[in-house]
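Example for tutorial group B:
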């Protein structure tokens, strides 16, 4: 079967939760599925599949045994924190974490086997998790586990991760810092986790393959799209990836309570279109999208429904009016000085990174 996009979700994802008062609420994933069902996208061009959980061995391709055992033990007890205070150990969290990693693994497998063109795992995108520690609501790094799976089982060598979350994808960067896996992250600068500067470009065989686009507070649609288009497509074209993986955290939206960027539903539609086009132009259409941040539950469902409709092209004509209602009704302020700061970052990045890929700065 080709030209099909899979939406990977099972109710086990709801076990990946930190309590009712915590910003991270997995119901946003179910809400996204519900919204897409109301839009009748699961009509042959798109399908909903329930992934099985990952196995402990899958986690060990990325994480230390000591850390995995620690998470399992802490979650069985159901109290305390897995990091310094952002990521509580709740009952059933370990099982939920295996489930969301399972979604990214199934997505990677389906795409490489040619069962689907594209796959989206809204439970994944846990980009802050490191080899031996949790961080920022992320327990296991499903992106890294999927990359190790693709390297081991399909012999892939050239994998690009385009991480658009409002926070720096520091866990993913750290795990591949000395390898030629191209990790590109756009994020607000100066907030958690405090990394993701232009000068972090990788080391050894990984030099030039970590790319960071740090953005100031208030970065809005036009400034973001400008930076994205100037940096991401030329690098992806030069890299010639075998698959595109996109971490699609939507906490850069102006309604998000944690980040302070000023992106809109239109930004996410346009970025979806660009990433989808890049996958077809340079990676044979192989595209795996995973979720990520997003702390205004209704906003997240709208953004992810827009992204999924865009990459699947499965929206029936009769749903178009309903689809148009998913877009923002008002817009954040656009300040020229913010655009100028973004432009300066773009120019520094081109000077620093483009020559390493034989691109003109
Ligand atoms: Zn985030
Ligand atoms: Zn496509």
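The residue assignment follows.
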């Amino acid at each position: 079967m080709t030209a099909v996009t899979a939406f990977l979700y099972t109710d086990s994802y709801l076990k990946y939760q930190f309590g009712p008062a915590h910003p991270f609420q997995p119901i946003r994933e179910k809400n996204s599925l519900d919204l897409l069902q109301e839009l009748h996208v699961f009509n042959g061009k798109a399908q909903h599949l329930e992934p099985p959980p990952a196995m402990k061995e899958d986690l060990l391709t990325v994480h230390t045994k000591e850390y995995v055992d620690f998470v399992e033990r802490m979650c069985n007890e159901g109290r305390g924190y897995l990091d310094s205070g952002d990521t509580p150990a709740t009952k059933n969290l370990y099982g939920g974490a295996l489930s969301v990693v399972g979604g990214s693994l199934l997505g990677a497998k389906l795409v490489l086997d040619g069962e689907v063109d594209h796959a989206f795992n809204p439970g994944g995108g846990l980009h802050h998790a490191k080899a031996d520690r949790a961080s920022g609501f992320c327990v296991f790094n499903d992106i890294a586990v999927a990359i190790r799976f693709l390297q081991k089982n399909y012999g892939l060598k050239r994998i690009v991760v385009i991480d658009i979350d409002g926070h720096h994808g520091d866990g993913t960067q750290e795990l591949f810092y000395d390898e030629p896996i191209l990790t590109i992250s756009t994020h607000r600068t100066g907030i958690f986790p405090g990394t993701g500067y232009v000068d972090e470009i990788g080391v050894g065989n990984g030099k030039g393959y970590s790319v960071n686009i740090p953005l100031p507070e208030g970065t809005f649609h036009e400034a973001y799209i400008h930076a994205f288009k100037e940096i991401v497509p030329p690098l992806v074209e030069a890299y010639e990836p075998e698959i595109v993986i996109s971490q699609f955290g939507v906490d850069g939206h102006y309604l998000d309570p944690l980040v302070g960027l000023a992106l809109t539903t239109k930004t996410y539609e346009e970025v979806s279109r660009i990433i989808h086009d890049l996958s077809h132009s340079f990676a044979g259409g192989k595209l795996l999208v995973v979720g990520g941040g997003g702390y205004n539950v209704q906003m997240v469902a709208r953004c992810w429904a827009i992204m999924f409709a865009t990459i699947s092209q499965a929206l029936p004509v009769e749903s178009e009016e309903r689809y148009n209602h998913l877009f923002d009704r008002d817009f954040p302020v656009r300040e020229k000085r913010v655009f100028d700061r973004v432009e300066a970052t773009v120019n520094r990045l081109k000077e620093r990174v483009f020559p390493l890929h034989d691109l003109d700065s």
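The chain has one domain: 5-357. Compare this with the pattern of hydrophobic and polar residues in the output above.
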